[in-house]
Amino acid sequence: MTIKEITHLYNRVGFGISFQEASSLQKQSRTQVVSNIFDASREMTPLSVDVSEIKSQVRGLNLKDRKKIRSLIKDSVKKIHQLNIAWLYKLGNTQELLREKMTLFWANHFVCHDKNILHFQQYQNTLRKHALGNFKDFVIAIAKEPAMIKYLNTKQNKKRKPNENFARELMELFTLGRDHYSEKDIKEAARAFTGWNHDLMGNFRFRRMQHDYGEKTFLGKTGNFNGEAIIDIILQEKQCAKFICEKLYRYFVNDSLDASRVAEMTELFYQDYDIENLMRFVLTSNWFYDEKNIGTKIKSPVEFLIGMHRIVPMQFEKERELVYLQKLLGQHLLFPPNVAGWKGGRNWINPNTMMLRLRLPSILLANGEIALDEKGEFEDDFQRFNSKRNRQRRLKVIPDWETFHANNSNTTTAQLQEVLLTSPLNRGTKQYLDKLADQDLKEYCIQLMSLPEYQLC
């Protein structure tokens, strides 16, 4: 494989790669490199924060004690923010690259939010567990998660008064896409999921007395269907495989769909809904490495931040500033904007976020300042954050330049450029980089990350 192909692969399954690491893989075949990536993600390491105290309080909770419940919710939300930071650092340091990148993808597919850290942490690890597994098992597991049961109101879905929220989103957002089912299908599916509930500790519970055991007609089939049967019928529709393949193609290959490639993926995925087999097919296909698919995707805020961290490891002294940066960049992990999640693509960029992205490398890696000279949303957000109202502020970040130099001891500026910039360079950028070629590698790295081309992968 070429350096360019290896860099492209690692940009999509992870968050980039150093030149020395890429060089060490050059003599291996594409199949071997991809297999190694899957092998590294074979096991699942749960993401967790300490919830022992909250667990003990929940076990002895009196549901009539409203004051205690409010206090628990407040403590739980703090833990969810800790989980957010833990996930970011996990993304920046894990060897299970593909599993974590797939988890990031599925978190924006099976979108969910919960204020209960016990249930939400469990939900996140269910995403992680099934990220490369069987899609049918995945959908059933997600449908039974307490966080999802609450988020889409399955808890209120009872025989005498069905709630259609989960049934609708199951088809529209999770499996089939809009316009591939009828309103009657939604109503019948909702009946099948009646009685799905959970206990306080996050265990799934089927409430038999709340379930509708009557005959249902769904997607042209009639029977006494329960929730699992509804999911099975949905997956019999080839549209389900196509819908998932389109989303995976946009995320891992190109925002612009290639109908013929999606069709190839769909044929394979529809056979057994094996996510690993599908991803292995994509990552070893010649077309995945076509020029039109390299350096064409706008990095998400998380990809942008973690990509920098992977090159120059950094530690935030105040974790709340990392939360603040996520909000300013437009992607606060674990806090999706709505049930449809983040739109991605060009939606990541607007005048405010672009300005911040271009300045962020010097802010984080060269003790740069965030100033309040700019007008508009950026200024307003920062003023809310900055209670002292000083006109300039330095984020307290400790970059690990020693590790950077150790990982790039024999790397030239040209080689560093090769792995950091994968999109075509215009004439002005080339001339600018030529002038910087004699700079120290550290300074050159900061300048490369400050270019518009670094926003693409």
Characterize the biggest β-sheet.
Answer: 2 strands, antiparallel
The total count of strands amounts to: 8
The percentage helix is 55-70%
Q: Give Rg in angstroms.
A: 24 Å
What's the total helix number?
23
Distance between the termini: 18 Å
Unreliable spans are: 371-391
Strands side by side in the biggest sheet: 1-2
Mean pLDDT: 93
Percent of residues in β-strands: 5-15%
The SS-based structural class is: mainly alpha
Gross morphology is globular
Task: Outline the structure in words.
This protein has 457 residues and is mainly alpha-helical. Among the domains are: 103 residues, no CATH class; 155 residues, no CATH class. Helices cover 56% and strands 5% of the residues. It has a two-stranded antiparallel ribbon. It has a two-stranded antiparallel sheet with strand order 3-4. Strands 5-8 form a two-stranded antiparallel sheet. The protein starts with a helix and ends in an 8-residue tail after the last helix. About 5% of the residues have low confidence. Pfam families: DUF1800 (PF08811). InterPro entries: DUF1800 (IPR014917). This is DUF1800 domain-containing protein. It comes from Kordia algicida OT-1.
